[in-house]
Design a protein that fits this description.
- The chain is an alpha+beta fold.
- It starts with a helix and ends with a helix.
- It has two domains: 108 residues, Phosphorylase Kinase, domain 1; 215 residues, Phosphatidylinositol 3-kinase Catalytic Subunit, Chain A, Domain 5 (Orthogonal Bundle).
- It is 35% helix and 13% strand.
- About 8% of the residues have low confidence.
């Protein structure tokens, strides 16, 4: 399908996937903008205070409570972490790892809801007006009318080849998201290969077809106005939902099947090699498959990954407030990231 027709079918309707009807900010909120707090006496990531009375619209995508509000002219999304499963720190650490790689990404900050003290993260929309967003499933349905609608997981048609066909019609993410991309990353397939490398590094098993997207700029319906979005939504990564008891056991076990290398190899992506496959690919298999689609870009991302050393990762983990991330959680997350980094740099393809 020509890029012009894909663009028209996916993003030609007036529906804005990233925007919803809004109400004016209530008069009671004529107060200074949200403020940020730092950790007590040490270098911690700042925590933004969120006033839920500023909420303009609920975000319907996903299973967690989220709402949009405005900070000046910027549309902001607060994602609550009410289950205590670590999605807030995982999202923040993934964001900072993207920064180290020079990867186009949505920037997340730790946040807390003032009414009730609910933790979470906050980010600015990656599709400010006049941009429009189309999610991966919408792109794939435009390419294939038989692509299934509804489920996000275990969608066998979410294949490397189908996604790659879409990527060939997109431009790289627009500025400012692409401003720090390394030299040699010059196409949407090359950028997306980096996203899948990130997934393998952080054990992100959640890049389903609603967790990647395209952005449409105003103008003619052509591929020149259709861009890959920055990577977003990494809160399900780094095994953030396992208990500290399990983390400690895996860190100290003498049973190889219980140690971190064996644990790391279990991570599966949301991509399938073909519609007839019984199981999705591992995160490492998915990386190798997308790397083969953009080998020059893949090499560049590996070079970027090799520049990240243990001290860089330790520093980031140390900046998560201790009430959000325990010491054993830091130790486990460090070892998991180091193990996956080693596997990627060695070319492991299990």
């Amino acid at each position: 399908m020509a890029g012009q027709e894909l663009t028209r079918r996916v993003l030609g309707s007036p529906r804005r996937y990233d925007f919803y009807p809004t109400a004016p900010v209530p008069p009671i909120l004529k107060t200074p903008s949200n403020t940020a707090l730092s950790g007590p006496g040490c270098n911690m990531f700042p925590v933004t205070r969120i006033d839920s009375r500023r909420a303009e619209a609920l975000e319907p995508l996903g299973t967690k409570r989220k709402f949009w509000y405005r900070d000046g002219e910027t549309r902001m999304l607060f994602k609550a972490e009410e289950r205590g499963t670590g999605e807030d720190w995982a999202e923040k650490i993934a964001c900072e790892l993207c920064r180290l790689l020079g990867m186009p990404h949505v920037h997340y900050d730790l946040a807390i809801e003032e009414d009730g003290g609910v933790p979470g993260v906050v980010c600015a929309t990656c599709a400010p007006p006049p941009l429009l967003m189309g999610l991966g499933n919408q792109l794939l349905q435009a390419l294939d009318p038989d692509y299934p609608d509804g489920n996000k997981y275990k969608v066998r048609q979410h294949t490397v080849s189908a996604v790659s066909e879409i990527l060939e019609l997109l431009m790289s993410p627009p500025s400012p998201h692409s401003d720090r991309m390394p030299t040699g990353i010059d196409s949407a397939p090359a950028v997306f290969a980096g996203y899948v490398l990130l997934d393998a590094w952080i054990a992100n098993q959640d890049r389903h077809h609603e967790n990647w997207a395209a952005l449409r700029a105003p103008g003619a319906f052509t591929s020149a106005n259709l861009f890959l979005s920055p990577t977003f939504d990494h809160g399900a990564s780094m095994a953030r939902n396992i208990s500290d008891e399990e983390r400690h056991e895996r860190l100290t076990s003498r049973d190889r099947n219980r140690q971190i290398p064996a644990f790391a190899r279990r991570a599966r992506s949301a991509f399938y090699p073909d519609p007839g496959a019984d199981r999705p690919m591992t995160t490492m298999q998915a990386w190798l498959a997308f790397a083969a689609k953009a080998p020059t870009g893949a090499k560049t991302w590996l070079q970027q990954l090799a520049r990240v050393d243990q001290a860089n990762i330790e520093q980031l983990l140390s900046e998560v407030p201790p009430n959000r991330m325990s010491s054993v959680c830091r130790d486990f997350t460090l070892q998991l990231l180091l193990e996956n980094q080693k596997r990627l740099l060695s070319g492991a393809g299990e």
